[in-house]
Structures are given as C-alpha cells and as structure tokens.
Design goal:
heterodimer, A: alpha/beta, eight-stranded mixed β-sheet, globular, B: 483 residues, alpha/beta, 27% helix
Chain lengths: 418, 483
C-alpha cells in the first residue's frame, strides 16, 4: 500500500501521441552517448521508439527518410533544473507556481507538477532549440517539494510528465529561507526533520491517535519524506560553500540518504569526497564570480575538475538571464562552455543527456540513442554547442516537434519585408 | 589637439571655482555646496565651454579623472584575422600598437625594431569590447546590503546622484570582465527611479580610486527608466502607473528648464548674486545643454515613442534606449531620431514588459538602419558579450536577415562607442584610435574562443597565460589563487 502510494508514477512514454510512423535518419554523425560516436550512422524510429542505431540498418520501404549527411544526431537534450511550465513570467504573480507556502519552511508534500501549465509559450522555443526534456524543480523553503521530469510535448500535463516525482528538493545554503539564522541551526533542523519522519513512519498509528509528541512538520510533509529517509527517493540538496557540501555529505551518511548536490559553487574543493561518496553534482559552467560569501571560489572549470576526480556531473545553468525558463534552451551553451574550460566533449554531451536521465531514473527510456529507447532525437546542422549551429529536426517520442514559436510569429510580423 | 585645449579650459574653470570658494567657506567640498558669490568671483569668463568629462560652470569637473596609461611597449600582432569594425575583415593582417595608439593596421605592416612581435596565426583581433550598461562596481561582488549601492531608491527623481560615488574599485567583477575582452564600460545607477542619476564611463584597469578608472574626456550620461520598475518601487507614494511616470519626467524637465534659464542668464553676465545651486537640476540642465547623454532604460516600443516625444517637448536628445526588448517594433523611429538601441541577445519574459523578446531583435533593429548594440546589465554577460552577439547574429540569419561578422562586430564596439560619445577614440581598429585591442584564441563568435590578451591604451592589461594576473584586494586570501 505504502509502496503504491510512493512509487514513482511512470507516465507518458507510450502515450496516445505516438503515431504509427517509421522514420530513418540516415548518414549523420550519430552520438548515441551510451556508446562511441558513429560516422555515417542511421537511426531508425518506429512508432515513437528507436528500433535501430548503427551503420548497417535496413531501412524499410515505408520509412520517411531524413538525410543527415554532414549533420550531427544526438539524443534530445535534458535541462535538469528548470521552472518551465510553472513560471511563465517571473514577476507576474499569477503565472508563478513554483514555491509552496509550506509550514515551518517545509513543503515536502508539494508536487510542483500539479501546477504545470501545458499552454506555456516557453515550451516551443525551448524544444525548437533541441531540448526535449526538462526537470521542473520547486523552489523556496528548507524543503521545497518534489521535482518531476517532463517531455516538452503537447498537453495535457499528464501527457508531458515522464516521471514524477524524481527527487525531493532541499537546501543547506540559505538560512533565512530555512527559517533559521545560522547554518548549524539549519543542519540541526534537517536532522530533526529526518528523525521525525522516521518516528512518524514507525509510529503512524500512534500519530493518528494523537498519542505522540508534536513533530516538526505537518503529517503530509512527513509522509512525503518517507521515501527519502528510506533511500528510495533522490534528495537534491542545494549547497555552495565547501562546508555546506560536506554537511550535506554527512547528512547522507548518517541517514543513509540518496543525495545529489545542486549549485555546488565550491564543489571542486570537495571533489574527492563527492567521488568517494558517489554523489552526483548538478553544476553550471559559466560563472566565476564570487557573488556571495558562499560562492567565493566559484569557477568556470568546476565541472571539469569534478569529472577529473570521478564525480558524476550533470550540467545545469548558472548564467544570468532566465536560464531556467525563457532561456532553458541555452543549456547547450553551458556544455560548450564546460568544454572551453576543460571538460571533454563526450562528458559535456553526456552531462546534458544520459547523466541526468540516469540521475532521474529515466535512462531506460531516454538520454541515449539505442534500440528500445523513446525517440527523443535532435538533428543539428553542426556542433550542437556552437552558436552557428541550427536545429534541423527535433523528435520527441518519435514526432517532429519543431513548430513556429510565439517569438517566431513576432519576428515574422516585424522583420523588414523584402 | 582640440581635446587638450578643452581639458585645459575645463581645469581652469574648476580651479577658478575652487579658489573662489576657499576663502569664504572652510567646509570640505563634500559638504552642501554653497552658491558661488559674485563678489569673490574672478573676472567673469565668457559663457563656459562644456569641457570633456566635465560640464558647464559651475559644476565643471569636481571628480576629475586621474587615469594614466599603464606601462606599455610597442607591439605588433601579425598573421591574424582582424575584425576592424571600420571595414571589411582583414585576413592575415597586422596591427601595430605604439604610444597607446593604433599606429598601423593592414596586410603589410613592418615591425619597428623595438617592437614586441606576437604571432596571431589562427587567432583574431578585435577592438576592445564596450558595455554601455553595467552595474559593476556599484553592485559589486560579493553582493548583499553592505555592497548594494546601485539604486538610490528614496525618490523617483534622483538626478543629483552620481554612479561613480558608488563604484568600488576592488570589485572582483572588474578583472573578470576584462578577461572577457571588455575594455570600457558605462556604469549606470539602477532603474528604480524615473531619473536615476549620472553614469560614469570607466576603463577596466586596476586602481585604488574610481577617479583612476575614469575615461578621460568621456561625457557623463543620465540614467532614466521607463515602465514597470519605477512604478513598482514607488507604488505607495507614486508614481504607481505609467501615466504617473510620464508626469514625473515632465515635472522634472519643467524644473530643469527654469533652472537652466536662470543659470544661463547669470553665466552670460555674472551680475548680481548667482542663483542657488541644485545638484539634480544642474545635471538635468546639462542634459538640456547637450553636455550629458541620456541613456533611457525602456523595454516597450510604445513607451520609447512617448519618451521621444518628451525629449522633443523639452529639447533634449535621447542617446540610446537600453533594454530595448521591443526596439525591433520601432526600429524605423529610432533610426529617424538617431537613437541607439542597446539590447540583450536573448533575455526575456522575466517581467511583463520583457515578454515580447525575440532573438532577432538586434538583427532587425540593424536592418532598419538604427544604431544597434549589445549590452549586458550583468557581470556575467559582460564577460561574454562576444558570445551574446554570436547568438544575435546567427538568430538574425536564421530569421532570413543576413548579418555579417563585420556588421556584428559593430554591435560590440563602434556602436556602443558612439552611444558613449567616444567613437572618435575607441571602438574600431583604425590608425589613430586608442590601442584598446583584444587578441582572441579563435573566432570570437565561437563558444570555444577566449580572450587571450587584452590591451588598454597599448598596455597589456590581461594575459591568460600569466598566472600572476591582477587580483583585487578583496580576492587576496578570500578567493583561492588558482581560481
């Protein structure tokens, strides 16, 4: 019963939208990510699923052929920390559904995807630039709530959701948002919260009878934390300063949590500890500013240094300019920048495809080009990380997903007429 | 030559003013400035000539630049691709930096015997990049209340404040922006206010004082802001609407016009008591006299059109609209009024007035012939303005508007130089221009290219291979040295 309640809901992959269609993308340089790049490779798609990848693929007569000679074929990109569909215009309150009120700065039961707006005009321009999948994260508080992974396809919301929840979101870097005034107090509050979640889990009947002491969080939030304390649900902890990251590692050790670190400005200073604990890190590659006292040692080669130490890296954005919403499309430039600052090309591509798919437990369906995977595929005119490259085709679950965005409509209306 | 004369003229005015003050007033100059007394005035000079970097009497140039070029040597960069911003790309070219100036550029430039010769094979040279919209120094890193000095959000009109008085020269964002190829930036007050105050144009050089960074001879700018920010900040006391905003600008200009007339009349004769001084109205008067350039934060097309009418009503010029997300809708109007458009490549939808952002904005604005430029408004964006322009250039092409690299380089250099009134000194690789030059590891419109060397006035201020490079005071001990 409990397992049923908390089991991740797998949806979408075999939805009504997957039309019976056979498509062959031929002669491209194929980056399966799960294996070595293939020159002059073919990717065969049938009914929304990849059925073959390689150089020796028989193309059925009824297949729609896409000649990708001189082009690059990759899995659809995954932007792992977005607010797509839950913030449309940041400062327009009515379009902002990303942060729950919670109680005592804990909103573990908040499912951010319950407010997902499939009509957001941000989905089309994002997927037009090669992002087929996004994680949507709740924000705020000590425990922000639960994240989901969505495909950027047409609604309703249930059709978009690929997996939910994929993670619980927490933080150890903002004492104010946690309702505390010191880092030590914040960490202590988290420990109490996990203790109380365990207590609640063990004495639920007593709790229902009101025969227990008062607990730190609401019943629904404690309930939502059970998969976390059982180590079944990923807990993503936002941490920047070295000691914040080490505190998160200590929590994971003491409570046997399955964690990842996000933001991680100074993660490179704990690279060996992160590697030893096998804790993945979600970091950006475009920020080197000591913008706060928690990020004094922020640097652009953070991701490269972490990889070199053997840490699993998921690239997200830490640049300015709405990179989690309007410019969620720019995740490819974060990867290019990571390469410019020392990460290997293959690692950078993996960090925006297969690595996040593995982190979020969806790598059996997306993140790589292999027979049996869902056909989330991008055909690029050249190097996906370069400004000069255009997206030529985007397939999500086997369907061509490029279409004019609202921005394209404005351009058509206003560009000089010949 | 002319500029030297003007600097001298300006300095004289300042000295005259200072000496006349001293006997009468023992207060330090930072104290509330008294009106100059005609009895103590020296022989009246003719109506003052607006000086570079300074303005009219009496407030000529109270915080003069003390910038001195850094040690430099004659340098020849050869075998390099040069994006000149003045003409077509020169392949396999050379550029000679001597005595702080670009001495020669072309395909065959001989190396003087004393020259340091740098081989630029496979590399690119561009003019130093220019950012017309920065808050580096007045919103320094690390952020927080102690360092938050960019918005004097205490009154909707604060024409009396000067951004330079907030600039922290030890902001670690300064060397980082230099490392991105930025050599000149305009630091503006924030956009909380209808009229936010004076900007300052700075060189990205190490200095203990802001005066040591000030671009000699650069005109001041005036920051104005349209739309959502002022009406949000002043919701309670007003303005709380766009019509309230417009009433606020007009009220300020009406006052300024009266003040200007009083002072111009007195300046012409120096008879009787001088009118009382008002720092804010002094700045606005200088705008009306054409000595200070207006930089107007304005997102929406319809608001830009209204601001143009307000400028006409009071007889001033808008130099550039900043954050002009909808410039593409009124590019013809900007062109007709010779107003620049400073834009982001792709920021949008963070507020309602940014909702119609398109990546082809620069390309379309440029296609209509309006002066188009990139700007950052971000210490991160300032480190990669070349990449922002790359996005905008290729977005234009994807929309069917051919933008060449020779056009796009202008968005980064000569057009922002024009917006600052400095296009005679910086912004292009031409003989006689200041030797503000960047050597890039590759094509600057590639994500993989980095600025390798950056010269300001012919001095090598940044060298990526130098492990001992400039670190601000703040970074010592706080930021690890291998960072």
């Amino acid at each position: 019963m409990r397992k049923l309640l908390f089991a991740a809901v797998l949806l979408g992959a075999v939805s009504a939208s997957a039309a019976a269609q056979t498509i062959a993308i031929t002669n491209g340089k194929v980056y399966p990510v799960s294996g070595a790049p293939i020159n002059s490779g073919t990717v065969l798609i049938r009914d929304g699923v990849i059925v073959a990848v390689g150089t020796n693929v028989t193309i059925p007569a009824n297949a729609t052929k896409i000649d990708a000679t001189g082009k690059i074929v990759t899995p659809g990109l995954i932007n792992s920390t977005t607010e797509l569909g839950v913030i449309e215009i940041d400062q327009v309150r009515a379009t902002n559904d990303v942060a729950a009120r919670g109680e005592n700065n804990v909103a573990a039961s908040f499912k951010v995807w319950d407010g997902l707006n499939p009509s957001s005009v941000l989905f089309v321009p994002t997927r037009n630039e090669g992002v087929t999948t996004a994680a949507i994260f709740p924000q705020g508080g000590l425990i922000s709530g639960q994240a989901a992974v969505i495909d950027l396809v047409a609604g309703p919301a249930a059709n978009m959701i690929r997996r939910a929840p994929v993670a619980m979101i927490a933080q150890v870097n903002n004492t104010t948002a946690a309702g505390t005034t010191a880092h030590g107090e914040l960490i202590g509050k988290l420990r109490t919260l996990f203790d109380d979640a365990k207590f609640y889990f063990q004495r639920r009947v007593d709790y229902e009878r009101a025969a227990t002491r008062t607990l730190i969080a609401r019943r629904d939030d404690l309930e939502a934390l059970i998969p976390v304390i059982e180590g079944r649900m990923l807990l993503i902890i936002d941490a920047n300063r070295m000691d914040e990251i080490d505190a998160a590692l200590a929590l994971a050790r003491d409570y046997r949590l399955k964690i990842a670190i996000s933001s991680g400005a100074e993660a490179w200073l704990c690279a060996d500890r992160l590697a030893a604990a096998r804790v993945p890190v979600l970091v950006g590659a475009m920020n080197n500013i000591p913008s706060s006292f928690a990020t004094l040692n922020q640097r652009q080669d953070n991701a490269a240094l972490l990889r070199r130490a053997g840490v699993t890296v998921v690239l997200v954005s830490n640049n300015d300019g709405g990179e989690s919403r309007f410019n969620a499309r720019n995740i490819k430039y974060e990867a290019g920048s990571a390469v410019a600052y020392g990460m290997s090309y293959d690692d950078a591509l993996r960090a925006i495809t297969l690595a996040p798919a593995e982190l979020f437990g969806v790598s059996d369906r997306i993140g790589s080009l292999q027979a049996g995977r869902d056909a989330n595929i991008v055909v690029w005119s050249g190097d996906p990380f370069e400004f000069s490259t255009q997206v030529e085709h985007v397939f999500i679950r086997g369907r061509e997903a490029k279409e004019p965005s609202r921005q394209d409509m404005l351009i058509e209306r206003y560009k000089p007429k010949r | 030559m002319n500029s030297i004369v003007r600097i001298l003229a300006c300095t004289c005015l300042l000295l005259a003013f200072a000496t006349q003050l001293l006997p009468q007033n023992t207060q330090p100059r930072e104290a509330k400035s008294p009106a100059p007394q005609s009895t103590a005035a020296p022989t009246p000079s003719p109506a003052p000539t607006p000086g570079p970097g300074g303005t009219s009497f009496p407030n000529a140039d109270p915080f003069p630049s003390t910038y001195k070029p850094f040690p430099r040597r004659t340098t020849l960069i050869r075998n390099v691709t040069i994006l000149t911003a003045a003409g077509p790309t020169i392949s396999n070219g050379s550029v000679l930096l001597r005595d702080g100036k670009i001495a020669a550029v072309g395909t065959s430039v001989a190396a003087p015997p004393d020259a340091l010769v740098i081989d630029g094979s496979g590399k690119y040279v561009t003019p130093g990049l220019i950012d017309v919209h920065s808050h580096i120094g007045d919103y320094p890193a690390p952020g927080g209340d102690a360092n938050s000095d960019g918005n004097e959000a205490t009154n909707p009109v604060t024409a009396n404040v000067w951004a330079e008085h907030s600039v922290w020269p030890q902001d670690p964002q300064i060397p980082r922006a230099l490392a991105g190829g930025l050599t000149t930036m305009q630091v503006l007050p924030g956009s909380a206010n209808l009229i936010g105050g004076r900007s300052v144009v700075l060189k990205l050089v190490p200095s203990r004082t802001v005066q040591g960074m000030k671009f000699p001879g650069a005109k001041y700018g005036l920051k104005m802001a349209c739309g959502e920010n002022p009406k949000r900040v002043y919701q309670q006391r007003g303005p709380s609407t766009r019509m309230g905003n417009v009433a606020g600008y007009r009220a300020a200009w009406i006052q300024a016009e009266g003040y200007r007339r009083k002072w111009d009349a007195w300046n012409a004769t120096h008879k009787g008591d001088a009118p009382g001084r008002d720092l804010g109205l002094e700045t606005l008067s200088e705008v009306l006299r054409g000595n200070i350039l207006v930089h107007n934060h304005c997102y929406r097309a319809d608001e830009m059109a209204q601001m143009i009418d307000i400028a006409k009503e009071f007889g001033y010029k808008i130099r550039a609209f900043h954050h002009s997300v909808e410039a593409y809708k009124v590019a013809d109007l900007l062109k007709a009024n010779d107003i620049g458009a400073a834009e982001w490549a792709d920021w949008g939808a963070f507020k309602m007035e940014a909702n119609d952002s398109i990546k082809a904005n620069l390309a379309i604005t440029d296609a209509f012939g309006a002066r188009t430029m990139i700007h950052s408004d971000s210490a991160l964006g300032a480190q990669r303005l070349n990449q922002e322009v790359a996005k905008a250039m290729y977005a234009g092409r994807a929309s069917g508007i051919m933008v060449t690299e020779d056009q796009a380089i202008r968005w980064l250099t000569i057009n922002p130089a024009w917006a600052l009134g400095l296009d005679d000194k910086i912004g292009s690789i031409e003989a006689g221009k200041n030797a503000d030059v960047v050597l890039w590891s590759g094509n600057p419109f590639s994500i993989y290219s980095k600025a390798e060397k950056v010269w300001i006035d012919g001095a090598l201020l940044y060298d990526r291979s130098d492990t001992e490079r400039w670190r601000t005071d703040f970074e010592l001990g706080n930021v690890k040295e291998n960072n």
